[in-house]
Input
Amino acid sequence: MKFMLMMNVPRGTGDYQISNWKPEEIQAHMAFMHALNKDLMDAGEFVAGEGLTPPSQARIVRVGNGGAPAVTDGPFPETKEFLAGFWIIDVENEARAFEIAARVSSAPGPGGTPLVIPVEVRQVMSVL
Output
């Protein structure tokens, strides 16, 4: 079963708050993420995963006149959280997806305290 895990962080200023962390806190956070990805790869559960640029760099695209892309800034200010990164995993069951999501949520933040990041878990739909 494939699932998408989406790591959401508070909107704040539209930039990642991690830029205000001490260098050793950033290193600990990144080491945690690298270890998580390695463990998922070693278990054969990792399909894909990426971190995303902050919302200040995001754009919303719709079809415009004549089929050309109409590009606007986004997401909009009323957004309370934004997507910071994602994983696609292939696991035996939903319980394992929840277990991995909980591990993502425990990523260390300032002072090493777990961030308790909200992680949305959604099964990837099969086209068959």
Remarks:
- The mean pLDDT is 89.
